[in-house]
Amino acid sequence: MVTLRQVAAEAGVSLSTASRVLSGSDYPVALDLREKVEGVARRLDYVPNASAQALHVGSTRTIGLVLGSLSDPYFNAMAEGVEEAATLQGYPVTICATHRDPETELSYFRLLQAQRCRALIVAGSGLDVPAYAEGVRVRAAALRANGNRMVTIGRHPLGEADQILVDNVLVGRLVGEHLVRLGRRRVGALVGDRRVTSTTDRLAGLTSVVTAAGGEVLAVDVPAATRDGGAQALGVLLDQALSHTWGAGSGRSRCGLNAVFGTADQMAIGAMAALRVRGLSVPEDVSVVGCNDIAGAVDAHPALTTVHLPLREMGRAAVRLGLADASVEPRTVEMAVHLAVRESTSPFGEAD
C-alpha cells in the first residue's frame, strides 16, 4: 500500500504539507502545491488512513446509523434516505441493527463515537426506559463536545440532539377520525412495543377520538411487529372482542369488532390475511388501517389504508442536520403526515 510519505517524496513536498492536503484539513496550502500532491495521490492510488485522519480533524468521513431491524420496511425506507443523502456528500454509512434492545443501542452509540463518525443518526422513536434516555442524552452531549452531532428520527426526551419528528398522536387521531366517519367504532388495535414512544402516541391519539365518539378501542400487544405477528395477534383480538361487553354507542358487528388498526403496516397486512382465513371480509365486515405507508402497503390485498410518513425524506433530512457545524444549536424539523385512503376501509352498513 502506498504511504503518505511516498506521496510527499514523489510530489517533492514535506510530509506535513502532503498531510494537510490529503487529510481534509482547512490549513492553507498554495494552490500549485495542493494540485501537485492531489495529482500524485491519484496516480499512485493513495488511499488515506481514515483513523489517522480522524485524529487530525476530529472525525472520519462516515455517518453512523442505528436502527431497529434490517428486515423492517419502516427502517429500510429511512436507511435508503440516509444513504442517498450521505452518498451525495461523499460519506459512507455504517449501519447497526439493535432490535430495539436498550443496552445494545447504547453500546453501538459508544462504538460509533469511538470510530469518530461525523454524525450519528438514530432511526426510530425513543424507548420509554429511564436508563436508556439518560444514556442517549449523555452520548449526544459527548458527540457535540467532540465537534460532531447526533440526530434522532422520532420523539426522544433529549435536548442535546437534532430531531426529525412526526406527530404520532396526530397519526392516531387521523385513523380514529376516518373510522368514526365510516361508522366503525368497535376498534381493535394491534399494538407494537409499548416502550417505543411512537407506539404509545399513536394508540393515545386513536383512543381519544374513538372514545369521544362513543366507541371503544380494544388493544392487544403484538409479540413481534411483523406480518406473522399481526396475523397471530388478530386471533387473540377476535377472541377478546367476542367476549367483550361493548358500549351501546359503539355499533354492532358479527365478529365482535368492525375495525382493526395496526401500529405498523406489516401487522395490519398480517391481520387482513388472518381475517380472510376466518371467513371475514375486508373491508365490509372489518375495515383495516395501518401506519407508515411502507412500500408493500399499496400492493396488499386489498390495498391498505394507512397514514403516510415521508420515511425516505426523514432519512435525508437527518443527514442534512447531522453534517451541520457543531456550533449550531440542536434543531427540530417536523414532517407532515396524511391519511392515504385505499380499499381496506369502507362505511359500516350496520352503523347506528
Mind sketching the topology for me?
Elements: H1 4-11, H2 15-22, H3 31-44, H4 50-57, E1 63-67, H5 73-88, E2 93-97, H6 102-114, E3 119-123, H7 130-145, E4 149-153, E5 162-165, H8 168-181, E6 186-191, H9 197-212, E7 216-221, H10 227-243, E8 259-262, H11 265-277, E9 287-292, E10 305-308, H12 311-322, E11 332-334, E12 338-340
Parallel strand pairs: 1-2, 1-3, 3-4, 4-5, 5-11, 6-7, 6-8, 8-9, 9-10
Antiparallel strand pairs: 10-12
Helix pairs in contact: 1-2, 1-3, 2-3, 5-12, 6-7, 8-9, 10-11
Which terms summarize this structure?
3 domains, 12 helices, 352 residues, alpha/beta, Rossmann fold, six-stranded parallel beta sheet, 44% helix, 434 Repressor (Amino-terminal Domain)
Estimated helix fraction: 40-55%
CATH class of the largest domain: Alpha Beta
Shape, per Cα inertia axes? elongated
| CATH fold-type name of the largest domain | Rossmann fold
Number of domains: 3
Gross CATH architecture of the largest domain:
3-Layer(aba) Sandwich
DSSP E strands, number: 12
Contiguous uncertain segments of 5+ residues = 54-58
Number of helices: 12
The class by helix and strand makeup works out as alpha/beta
Residue share in β-strands: 15-25%
Strand numbers in spatial order across the main sheet: 2-1-3-4-5-11
Distance between the termini: 78 Å
